Amino acid sequence: MVHSDKQDPPLTGAPKSTDPNNQVFALIRSMGTAGSLEELAARRKNIHIVVTDISDPTKLDEAAAKVSKVTAGSLDVLILNAGSAGPDTAVLPPSAL
User: Fold this and answer.
1) Rounded (10°) CA dihedral 50, 51, 52, 58
2) Is 80 inside a domain boundary?
3) Domain of 43?
4) Which segments carry the region annotation Disordered (predicted)?
5) CB 95 within 8 A of CB 14
6) Burial of 2 (0-12, 13-18, 19+ CB in 10 A)
């Protein structure tokens, strides 16, 4: 998920997490598997890791509340790729997002 104060097209140019004006949210199942994503979030304060279960509506509501708190209820882009990694995206490191 990406929240931006800008009107740039959402998926063009440099990775959105490199711009500190963008708030990037990574929804993951477990911090135990965060690995390099956790390291990247430590360096880029605009990356937020939210642990949730996308198959549980209650957990998704909780995740949405966490995102809303940071973005004041605004979200520009939502990319859902859970279970859909393919040959073109499976090899991308978190820094490519």
Assistant:
1) -70
2) no
3) 2-71
4) 1-22
5) no
6) buried
Phi, psi of 39 (to 5 degrees): -65, -40
> Which tokens sit at 67?
């995102």
CB of 23 closer than 8 Å to CB of 2: yes
Whether 96 maps to a domain, the answer reads no
Q: Which two tokens stand for residue 62?
A: 């909780």
Place of tokens 């990406």: 2
- Tell me the C-alpha distance between 7 and 83, whole Å: 29
From first to last of its 97 residues, the chain has per-residue pLDDT tens of 544 444 444 445 567 788 888 888 988 889 998 888 899 999 999 999 999 988 888 998 999 999 999 999 888 877 776 665 566 656 666 666 5
Tell me how many domains the chain contains: 1
